[in-house]
Amino acid sequence: MSDSLAALVASTCEEFGNDRTRMMDIVRAIQKEEGCVSSETLDLIAGQLGTYRVEVESVVSFYAFLSSRPKGEVVVRICDDIIDEMKGAENVAAAFAEELGVEMGGTTEDGKVTLERTPCIGMCDQAPAAIVNDVPITNLDESKARAIAKILQEGGAPAHLVTTFGHGNNANDLVRSMVTNNIRKRGPVVFSDFSSGSAIDKALAMTPAEVIRDVKTSRLRGRGGAGFPTGMKWDFTRHSTGDKRYVICNADEGEPGTFKDRTILTECPDLMFEGMTIAGYAVGSDAGIVYLRGEYAYLLPFLEDVLSKRREKGLLGTNIGGKEGFAFDIRIQMGAGAYICGEETALISSCEGQRGDPKNRPPFPAQKGYLASPTTVNNVETFCCVARILDQGPGWFAQMGSKGSAGTKLLSVSGDCTSPGVYEVPFGITLGDFLKLAGGENAAAVQVGGPSGQMVGPDDFGKTICYDDLATGGSVMVFGPHRNILEIAAKFMDFFVEESCGYCTPCRAGNVLLQGHLKRILDGRGEMEDLDYMQKTGETVKLTSRCGLGQTSPNPVLSTLKNFRPAYEVLIKEKKEEGFKAAFDIQEALGDSKGLIGRESTIYND
Amino acid sequence: MSTDKPKVATASLAGCFGCHMSILDIDDRILQLIDLVDFDKSPVDDIKEFTGRCAVGLIEGGCCNEENVRVLQDFRKHCDVLISLGECAICGGIPAMRNNVPLKECFDEAYRNGPSVHNPSGEYPSDPEIPLLLNKVYPCHEVVKMDYHLQGCPPPADTIWAALTALLTDKPVELPYELIKYD
Amino acid sequence: MMSDRITFTIDGVEVQADPGQTILQAADAAGVYIPRLCAHKELNPFGACRICTVMVNGRPQAACTTPAANGMIIENETEELTDNRRSIVEMLFVEGNHYCMYCEKSGNCELQAMAYRLSIMVPRHPYQFPDKDIDGSHPDIMIDRNRCILCARCVRASRDLDDKNVFQFVGRGKEKKVWINSEAKLSDTDMDVTDKATDICPVGAIIKKRTGYEIPIGQRAYDHKPIGSDIEEAKATAESN
Ligand SMILES: Cc1cc2nc3c(=O)[nH]c(=O)nc-3n(C[C@H](O)[C@H](O)[C@H](O)COP(=O)(O)O)c2cc1C
Ligand code: SF4
Ligand code: SF4
Ligand code: SF4
Ligand code: FES
Ligand code: FES
Q: Which CATH superfamily is A184-398 part of?
């Protein structure tokens, strides 16, 4: 047993050149074979790579999809986010648990199935959803859950759970997925016909500096959330000193409610790869990496295939497009369940085989990124825009959209609307108009930009979707009048507590405190001064956190305090006695004692 | 006793009486204190129930059982200014070391498995005279609003003196660096 | 030489720096104390505690990781920043279990000293009373994770000064903890009491056995003077000369 394990570790490490920076691939591959990365394996890997056991353990312990303890042959991960909850994920989870005879987080006695929860898996338009090993299962309900549990217990392979395929490439032999695209509105930039190589040809006819000039002229800003001008980022990367440069595509898509990159990866990967290749030419890089979230592993064989076809066509590799000396290739780096790895410096850490800790800035990735070399990190959709801009011209792109926000934007809509899915709309559309498009006009609240964005009410439906007004990386979650705004906010705080990397104090500790106070209020044990506390603590977390996660994580609290204050106030009761703490409940505090001793309180017995 | 002097009350909840010893440790200034105030409910004079409204209440210890909560709430009702005196009142102190042990384990250790326990029936005592324990030890300010916190285990007599005299003479309680100590 | 110097201001006071210096290093040299916990002069900056957050041209930045640059206008001792610092120190207190009254580090502890300097009388945050573990396996050194503030000083010192890598973090978020290069026990690592990592912990999380309470109360590092006084006094002395 141990000998074969040692052999597996040795061969896996060798496959990745005994390169410590490929730790993610190594531990993923070993876990796939062994079911976990055991204590013994940690030592073996460390020995093989010439590193320390605790370094390996540090990586494995960081990612939700990696484990040092054995799990079932099949792991069922049910999406635990708010949209799924609204669509009945609780009942689905209960059905799974009952049918399998395990608690959430547990493994069946025969070691076959483990049942877990996981944050948004990017299937909100077909919720409730789960991933079974790598296979997404969507539109779940109780009876489907029971049927699936039975099949798995009888040893059925996860792939066999898929009986019907979604449209387009979901039905591709290398995907074979039940996921549906739900592309509800096509637009000129992303969801349009494209002939592979056409944009590369046009780019290669120019100098790299001219390509960057065109990207600048197009006024393209990053589609991943922060909205940094893409041309400028490329310019910095090109002009930073370093022997090697890298282009990284951020396909981590972890912001709950965002699934637009899923449709790009499924339907327009060529456009995205083409954009990356152009970026390689522009910044002077010969190596690209796509960081693909672990939840989208089902797309990996298909994407690898698209890459090899592009190599065959001479669109990747050496002398691309016949251009002497221009070489560029792309590898796909799998993630393993960590929202923070969407943050570009954490993403780089992860690509380097480390914990997904963000890095200190400065230096910025454009100066010192992947392996300390100048690196541009851009979103999936940003690369698509680039390819189209080179193909159609910067002027064509710049005249679309609104003043500070050129072009179109993909929005992924979910929740209480009739047509959840992906929409390509010009920037500058009002939220109200957009809601009409998606059949969500009855919304009482809309979360724009995911949990890290803003919760807005009907008063703000006249605002426009763009970088300077209602900014979003693509997530639009619609909530009808029957929803409890604060429960939604609490769910979002749970998410941030779960996903904080824990590096810095305010985010690691502060979000837990905000979560606790929000729960207090929801339990009817809040006081007016708790609202001030949350405002103040939220501001501290925002101001002092080290990366974008902590700098936005208090938003569910802060934006609901601002836009939905009455929702808080109705939960705050008149005090029984001035000076007594509402949060302290004597009966609850005595609960354990009463049970153990078997009598009621003689003092507090009303 | 004259009635126009402000009144001070004190209580020891889940504490060790160390903070009360520190009150007495103000030495001969206790005479000045007696000139300034009357003691109401307090172990110092053994008055068991409040006789009226008090200017200042000093609380030693956190709340480990229902009786502590009752006393603390009673203090809140009767005192204008309530002070957490010492670490146990402020953060639970040594008694709070049980806070990350489930109550059942505490009971089992105390009444069943402890090395010096003789309890053939294995039952936990249920006499109504014994107050029920809380699930954890609560700092005072998590049960009622506390107005001041005097740090230390126990707070030095000088700290207590400085705070009391400031309060009783309507001056702001401002402690110098050397009087803020957590140990 | 002169031309290489960087000039900027902290709370209106002009400060000079050499290229490559962080704001914190330059401030130290100028006798301006910026509160900090994870920073240590022998270690590379880490940026975890966030106590050193200052406003640089109106934007929050960690002074310990941000390089000084010409013309920066830095705010350090404002009401707002001081209160944020208090809040963060209070978070560190409630997310661990700090019983200063019997802690070997008391009086010499930088967390406690920071709380004194900031006049913290009680945390505004509710105590979390988390369950943390203690490792007493090593003959000379003990780890008490109840008091760890995850500053990574031990991690950096063991790796960069001792060339050993005894420590690293495992887990993430609130589950993150300082861990060791062995299955479970410090005694199974090559940690030695003479390691730099033994003495570098700002709090009482890594302590030498049999040395507790050696220094009498009244003679400990922060009994009489606030943390940072050494830096501030260096300036005062320089000015009076
Ligand atoms: C916590 C966090 C998560 C993020 N997740 C993503 C993501 O999933 N995809 C993405 O493109 N950008 C994400 N970002 C933004 C990236 O840090 C970065 O700004 C972006 O990838 C840059 O690409 P762009 O300029 O093309 O938008 C995230 C940022 C933070 C702080
Ligand atoms: S803000 Fe949160 S996610 Fe970012 S470094 Fe700090 S702890 Fe990690
Ligand atoms: S580590 Fe410092 S703050 Fe914590 S208990 Fe010890 S002395 Fe107090
Ligand atoms: S053990 Fe000490 S030095 Fe190490 S991380 Fe914890 S507090 Fe810092
Ligand atoms: S898939 Fe569940 S919320 Fe996105
Ligand atoms: S000292 Fe700068 S973050 Fe800790």
A: NADH-ubiquinone oxidoreductase 51kDa subunit (3.40.50.11540)
The answer to whether A385 contacts chain C (CB < 8 Å) is no
Predicted confidence (pLDDT) per residue in A238-288, tens digit? 999 999 999 999 999 999 999 999 999 999 999 999 999 999 999 999 999
Task: Enumerate the domain spans of chain A.
Answer: 3-62, 74-163, 184-398, 408-479
User: Closest Cα partner for A282 from A226, A370, A199, A348?
Assistant: A199
pLDDT of C8-42, one tens digit each? 999 999 999 999 999 999 999 999 999 999 999 99
Single residue among C77, C101, C125 that ends a domain in this structure: C77
CB contact under 8 A, A501 and C171: no
Contacts of C127 (CB under 8 A, 6+ apart): B91, B92, B96, B99, B139, B142, C93, C94
A544: left (phi over 0), alpha (psi -120 to 50) or beta: alpha
Rounded CA-CA distance A380/A266 in Å is 12
Same domain for C152 and C108: yes
Amino acid letter, residue A578: E
Q: What's this model's pTM, rounded to 2 decimal places?
A: 0.97
Residue C217 inside a domain? The answer is no
* Same-domain check for residues C16 and C126: no
Comparing CB atoms, the residue among B77, B104, B131 nearest residue A596 is B104
Number of domains in chain C: 2
Contact C88 A545 (CB under 8 A): no
Average pLDDT over residues C138-144: 98
| Residue-range domains of chain B with CATH | 7-98+135-180 (3.40.50.700)
Q: Between A305 and B48, whose confidence is greater? A: A305
Q: For residue C22, give its domain range.
A: 6-77
Query: Does some domain include residue C20?
Result: yes
Q: What is the pLDDT of residues A12-25, one digit of tens each?
A: 999 999 999 999 99
Query: Cβ of C48 and A543 within 8 Å?
Result: no
C171–A contact, CB cutoff 8 A: yes
Would you state the structure tokens that stand for residue A414, as one six-digit string?
A: 């979910």
Q: Cβ separation of C170 and A54 shorter than 8 Å?
A: yes
ipTM for this prediction: 0.97
pLDDT class for B3, splitting at 50, 70, 90? low
End-to-end CA distance of chain C: 24
DSSP of A435-485, one letter per residue? Answer: HHHHT-TT-SEEEESSTTSEEE-GGGTTSBBSTTSB--SSEEEEE-TTS-H
Closest residue in A to B63 (Cα) is: A589
Query: Which band of pLDDT confidence, cut at 50, 70 and 90, is reported for residue B47?
Result: confident
- At position A180, the amino acid (one-letter code) is T
* Arch. (CATH architecture) of A408-479: Roll (3.10)
Which ligand has its closest atom nearest to the C-alpha of C172? 2
C122 and B CB contact within 8 Å: yes
Tally B–C CB contacts below 8 A: 65
Q: For A74-163, which CATH class?
A: alpha beta
